[in-house]
Amino acid sequence: MAAEGKPRLDPRIAVRLRVDIQYPLRGAHWRRGETYDLSASGSYCHCELDLPLKAQVGCRIYLPPAGGEGESLIDTDAVVVRVDSPEPGSREWRYGLYFVNLSETDFHNLKRFVYASRETVA
After folding, report:
1. Which of 28, 55, 102, 110 shows the greatest Cβ crowding within 10 Å of its Cβ?
2. What's the CATH code of the domain at 48?
3. Residue 103 clears pLDDT 70, i.e. is over it
């Protein structure tokens, strides 16, 4: 997520992917959600968890198969940088997540997916 007034370093794509969130980190069951958008540094997603701002969570994103390979799992920690309350009648909270402790391999896989998806849409 770009700081206010600063340009975004990585492009963001609108994409619906499965995401699992764990809170508290390493101390709870995983809850299933879905992304609204994705970049190599973060995501905007929803889940039925009431997460506080600045909480550190576990985050698993399931990238679809590409180039003859199977589904790819991105398993990292993230910090909640935005919280949007549920719409009336809904239990799904929306969150902006900033990835932390992302392995170099996962970072490159995310970046490759984002750029490849961007090119197919353009």
Report:
1. 110
2. 2.40.10.220
3. yes
For residues 91-107, average pLDDT: 93
Alpha carbon 92 to its chain's center: 15
Give pTM, 2 decimals. 0.85
- How many domains in the chain? 1
Tell me whether residue 5 is in a domain: no
Q: What is the DSSP string of 17-71?
A: -EEEEESSTTTS-EEEEEEEEE-SSEEEEEES--PPTT-EEEEEEEEPP-TT---
| Containing structural domain, residue 108 | 13-121
Tens of pLDDT, residue by residue over 9-56, are 779 999 999 999 999 988 888 999 999 999 999 999 999 888 999 999
Are 99 and 41 in contact, with CB atoms under 8 Å apart? yes
**Residue 2 included in any domain:** no
